Amino acid sequence: MAKNFTSGGVDFDDLFDPDIMGDGPAAPWLTSGGVALKYAALSYGSKRANVGFTSSTGVDVSNLWAAKGSAVYVIEGLHGKGLHASEQALTNQQTVSAQVSVALRSDGTWAVFGATTRGSFPQSAPTSGTWLPSGQSASGYQVQFEVVSSGSADRRVTTSAATYQSLSATQTVGFVLPDFSAVNATERSASATITIRLRRVSTGTVSTTVLSAYLSTTGYT
Q1: Mind listing the pLDDT tens digit for each residue in 112-144?
Q2: Which of 52, 54, 84, 143 is deepest in the core (most CB within 10 A)?
Q3: Model pTM?
Q4: Hey, where are the domains in the chain?
Q5: Phi/psi at 14 (nearest 5 deg)?
Q6: Cα 11 to Cα 133: distance, rounded to the nearest angstrom
Q7: Which three-class secondary structure string do you get for 2-44?
């Protein structure tokens, strides 16, 4: 519904994306039907040109809200990321394994990890970031992890949130090539698509973040 605030003859509803996630900043000095204007936070998208409506400090409201059509609701730094772990056995090594994991922590941060039999396997940057929108509480969100994998090797998925679970506690998902004898030249590999669905409890709105994973191990002859 038009808000009757316009810039260049265009209503604000056609200039800014709607507040789908429910955490968009309000402009209490601009009201429509007695309700403060509120659109998607700028952090979800990109800034449009100034619209000529400013706060008491002179800041244009285009610095608050995402331009129409620009908002993308994903976890920044995680969406589209590729995780990888591989292990080439050393002579006389008994077993090989590889795994990657993602954690959404109750403090509002996320992190990714990789490991093999011999220890940690570094991931490409960024390896951590923030999933929780500014000013929100982790208890107001739930997460669900879905992993779709392929490959001929035996592989496993470990997760604390196969169904929606509260982020008042840290939730994790892992993709694993389990221990396998290294005393041969066997090569194993598997790949997966990891989907993270983040749901805001108060509104039921869901943002979907997708990343990929690739694991491989090779024994020795």
Answers
A1: 999 999 999 999 999 999 999 878 899 999 999
A2: 143
A3: 0.81
A4: 6-63, 82-218
A5: -100, 0
A6: 27
A7: CCCCEECCEEHHHCECCCCCCCCCEEEEEEECCEEEECCEHHH
